[in-house]
Amino acid sequence: MTVLVYRDGVLASDSQLIRRNWNVLGHAEKIARVDVDGEAYLVGGTGEAPYVAKFIRWCRSDNFPKFLQNLEYSSPRIEPTGKDDNCTGFVIKPDGVCIRFEGDDPPYEVESEWHVFGSGDMIAVGALEMGATAERAVEVCIKHDILSDGPIQVVRRD
Fold it and tell me: InterPro entries of this UniProt entry (predicted)?
């Protein structure tokens, strides 16, 4: 499982990789920064590692800028997630608005001061409400959510 937290231009996550049988395998990339036309998009995913990796690869591909040009998000089914709900992918746009990709549903936008994802999301919400940075909220989750562990990954808009 995992926790990913966005606030004030910073996206942070744990890095623990767990198999379906709850064995800890190690660590995996869950977040990345992708620059498109001089602007930084912060991307990541929760769920099964192969699908998260596929989503991040798609965000780094030539198809991602093409998707961003379609402001209605009416593009065909997004390949990274497919029909299985094994990954929730997301893109934090330069203005902080989050585009969420969930299963076979069309992508949709969410406007909020901050965004949280994963098994530690409620712990992260508490930390953020108390004024924590994205990194500190992930630290708190690692301490209290047995499904999250370090090292912490961080990508910044700047």
Answer: Ntn_hydrolases_N (IPR029055)
Residue with tokens 């076979």: 104
Q: What is the mean pLDDT of the chain?
A: 85
Q: What secondary structure, in 3-state letters, does 88-124 show?
A: EEEEECCCCCEEEEECCCCCEEECCCEEEEECCHHHH
Residue 143's CB is within 10 A of a number of other CB atoms, namely 12
| Full-model pTM | 0.87
Q: Helix or strand or coil: residue 35?
A: strand
Distance of CA 19 to the CA centre of its chain: 19
pLDDT digits (tens, 9 = 90+) for 6-51: 999 999 999 887 766 666 777 888 999 999 999 999 999 988 788 8
CA distance 81 to 128: 28
Tokens 């780094």: give the residue: 60
**What SS3 state is found at 79?**
coil
Q: Which region holds residue 133: left if phi is over 0, alpha if psi is between -120 and 50, else beta?
A: beta
Neighbours of 66 (CB within 10 A): 10
Q: Which residue from 11, 12, 84, 93 is spatially nearest to 59, judged by alpha carbons?
A: 93
Average pLDDT over residues 137-157: 90
